[in-house]
Each structure stands twice: as structure tokens, then as C-alpha cells.
Recover the amino acids of this structure.
């Protein structure tokens, strides 16, 4: 009988970045960061908005202190399972970036297991471009993003290409892929 040790949230998210984001080129800038090991994965145990925002601000300070970190994925292993509650967190986190003087230095992208774009149906496969195994705030250095976009031929096409690919593969394909990230 084999015993299977469950993966940590960090391992699950690393699997997601490699097997979804990089493999399907949802972010054409991610491969370089994976290869250079410059993505910091931080698991937060926060379940309240205040604690989560404090963790996010600590990660901004860590990005300031560790310039070799290109980006941080702050994952909420136990909190913010409800997508509407998570969106409230995203709004608060963005407001706190400005209040704490991080606006213009960092921006937040966000991912959630139940992500649904505002103008989308729950079952639209396009939602999987922003679905991740855990609710996640992705802290991005604005300067690096500006440089990456400047060096990319057609950055405006990225979301459209992702949506087209997601819909072509279909919802069942992405559901299975997300489940496999946990193994």
C-alpha cells in the first residue's frame, strides 16, 4: 500500500503556474520567471480582510527588501473561498496599496478557484484564465511589467488569445487540469 502525502499549497500553486500559466502561455512573461526561480510563493493563513491586507503589505515590503524576487503569489489556503468576499479583499488590497505608498510600484492581479469575469457566465471556459487552486493576490512590479509589455509585439492580444484558447479547450479540460495541480 502506498501512502500519498498531500501537496502543500505552495506545491499546488507551483504546479498550476507550470502546467497552466506557462504551458498554455496565459502569461507570456511567466516562463522566464519560473526558469529563473524569481517567483515567491507565500501562503497566508489569514481569514479576515484586515489580516489578509496586512500579509499583502508585508509581501510588498519583502519585494522592496529582496529585489531578486520578481513577483509574489500570496495564496489564501483557508480564507476567501467565497468569490464575492474575495473581490471585497481585492478592492481593499488595491486601496491599501495606494494608502501605503505602493501604488505605481506594485499592482495586483487576482486569481480564484471560482473566478468569474463581470460580463461572463459562470460556466464560460474563459473564466479559467483567472482560476487558480487557491484565492491568490499576485503582486507584480509595475516597472518590470512595463518593460515586459514594451518588449512584447502585441500585448493587447494576450487576453483575447487566452480567452479563445480557454473556450476552444472547454470547461471540462480546465477543471481536470486544476484538479491535477493537487496531485
Amino acid at each position: 500500500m502506498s501512502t500519498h502525502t498531500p501537496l502543500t499549497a505552495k506545491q499546488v500553486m507551483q504546479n498550476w503556474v507550470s502546467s497552466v500559466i506557462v504551458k498554455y502561455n496565459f502569461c507570456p512573461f511567466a516562463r522566464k520567471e519560473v526558469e529563473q526561480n524569481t517567483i515567491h510563493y507565500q501562503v497566508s493563513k489569514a481569514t479576515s480582510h484586515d489580516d489578509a491586507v496586512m500579509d499583502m503589505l508585508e509581501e510588498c515590503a519583502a519585494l522592496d527588501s529582496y529585489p531578486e524576487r520578481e513577483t509574489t503569489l500570496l495564496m489564501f489556503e483557508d480564507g476567501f473561498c467565497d468569490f464575492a468576499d474575495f473581490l471585497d479583499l481585492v478592492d481593499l488590497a488595491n486601496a491599501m496599496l495606494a494608502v501605503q505608498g505602493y501604488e505605481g510600484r506594485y499592482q495586483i492581479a487576482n486569481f480564484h478557484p471560482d473566478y468569474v469575469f463581470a460580463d461572463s457566465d459562470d460556466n464560460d471556459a474563459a473564466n479559467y484564465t483567472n482560476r487558480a487552486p487557491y484565492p491568490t493576490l499576485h503582486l507584480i512590479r509595475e516597472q518590470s511589467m512595463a518593460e515586459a509589455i514594451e518588449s512584447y509585439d502585441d500585448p493587447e492580444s494576450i487576453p483575447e488569445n487566452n480567452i479563445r484558447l480557454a473556450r476552444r479547450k472547454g470547461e471540462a479540460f480546465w477543471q481536470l487540469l486544476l484538479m491535477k495541480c493537487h496531485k
Summary: The first helix runs from residue 9 to 22. The radius of gyration is 16 Å. The mean pLDDT is 95.
